[in-house]
Amino acid sequence: MAKNNVLAIVLAGGEGKRLMPLTLDRAKPAVPFGGHYRLIDFALSNLVNSGYLRTIVLTQYKSHSLDRHIVQTWRMSANLGNYVAPIPAQQRQGKHWYLGSGDAVYQSLNAVRDEKPDYLVIVGADNIYRMDFSQMVESHIASGKPCTIAGIRQPIELSSAFGVIDQDGGDVKAFLEKPTHCEGLSDDPTKILASMGNYVFTTKDLIEALERDAANEDSAHDMGGDIVPYFVEHGGVNCYDFIDNEVPGATERDRDYWRDVGTLDAFYDAHMDLISVHPVFNLYNFEWPTYTKADAWLPPAKTTFNDADRRGVAIDSIVSNGVIISGGNVEHSILSPGTYVHSYSSVSESVLMHNTRIGRHTVVAKSILDKDVVVEENATIGVDPERDRARGFTVTESGITVVPKGSIVHP
Ligand code: ADQ
What we know:
UDP N-Acetylglucosamine Acyltransferase, domain 1, ADP-Glc_PPase, alpha/beta, 9 helices, six-stranded parallel beta sheet, glycogen metabolism, glucose-1-phosphate adenylyltransferase activity, binds adenosine-5'-diphosphate-glucose
């Protein structure tokens, strides 16, 4: 149990445009991942495993399925004062939606004031990783600074996607949000120290900064673009290096794993890692579990062997509860709960979300099929990118076909 008086805030209002069509009718943090998880489960599991059991989740964009997931999955014992509470944009400070992630926190300060925490742990909802935030809070307290940001090394060519930290012994000298050009690290010019979008603040200092920011008409009211740079100028910023974080059960390979799965190709690659023989990210770390909606009521996965063409198997795959592979062949794929793969079909290098139906004599390759997709008998998908595009499906730069929720793939 964490010792300090901490309230956690999860920023979950991101639109996730680059994950279209998976974000057509759901917020990015609600996008399914790894069979039966949703992206937000990783941030929330990290908070719970760190001992932080009071969390508010700030939502706004198409938040229905996200709200439902949080309420159904992350119910905690309110009697013990523990909760994970989604807070939708409420227009408490003017007739507008959240202007940026800083404004989202500002507009939710009533929940902070009610709780009176000494420290706030504020994290994004879109990344896959394991992290013990209590170690970052210890670093924050030891630094005596009002603001701590978490940093991780990333390739310099990605600098325009990140806040770039220039630090010396943990003392942040400069912070540039998504620069087009910047210098590499002195010991490795090919890398930058990127902000992970995870912050610890001393509550009273953040409230003061947010109130000043709200009155500043030139501000975009963004945590990375405005609030962190404000603290670099006023009071100082401490940098917590993710490499120092130690999580029980982590392997040498996955201890510094952190992925932004914000594009379809990154999302797909992270899935292919999960089903590789030696994945970098180990889902089977039971000492730091990733929690999600309990689907124990679903029947176990089942395979039915088809003697005629010797199919009915899954190789190098993740097969969730409620899946039936009846005489079909599945390789290098992720099957989410409720998927049904019929005879004489072939599914390879694909991500199948909940309740997809794969008909007989079909071929599914290099595809992401969103929930409730039906691939009709004799249809193919992911085999001919031009045809898939002509049928209105998204095909990514690296050639992955993405089929929106509920679509029917005709022969
Ligand atoms: P981005 O991820 O590009 O960069 P942003 O789009 O603000 O920044 O998303 C950060 C988090 O805030 C996400 O979890 C998102 O869902 C959420 N969010 C965005 N807008 C929101 C809003 N209006 N209301 C509520 N939540 C909102 C950030 C930092 C960079 C850092 C990267 C690391 O700004 O400095 O390097 O994260 O991925």
